[in-house]
């Protein structure tokens, strides 16, 4: 899981990447390729 300041570029890495919010933390998840996971916030 990468911690980044901007998730816009991370979302475009794979067509299956989705942007979601959980408890104030913004996450990029990708079910087909989990190495593209990223988060913003603590």
What does this structure look like?
By secondary structure, the protein is mainly beta. It is built from 1 helix and 4 strands. The chain has one helix at residues 8-11; strands at residues 2-3, 18-22, 25-29, 38-40. It has a 4-stranded mixed sheet with strand order 1-4-3-2, with no helix packed on it. A hairpin with an 8-residue loop joins strand 3 and strand 4. The longest helix is centred in the first third of the chain and has 4 residues, at 8-11. The mean pLDDT is 90.
Question: In a nutshell, what does this entry contain?
Answer:
The chain is mainly beta and 42 residues long.
Task: Summarize the helices and strands and which ones pair or pack.
Layout: E1 2-3, H1 8-11, E2 18-22, E3 25-29, E4 38-40
Parallel strand pairs: 1-4
Antiparallel strand pairs: 2-3, 3-4
InterPro entries: Ribosomal_bL36, Ribosomal_bL36_sp, Ribosomal_L36_bact
Family: Belongs to the bacterial ribosomal protein bL36 family.
Protein name: Large ribosomal subunit protein bL36
């Amino acid at each position: 899981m990468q911690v980044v300041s901007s998730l816009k570029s991370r979302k475009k890495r794979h067509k299956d990447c989705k942007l979601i919010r959980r408890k104030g933390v913004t996450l990029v998840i990708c079910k087909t390729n989990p190495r593209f996971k990223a988060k913003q916030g603590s």
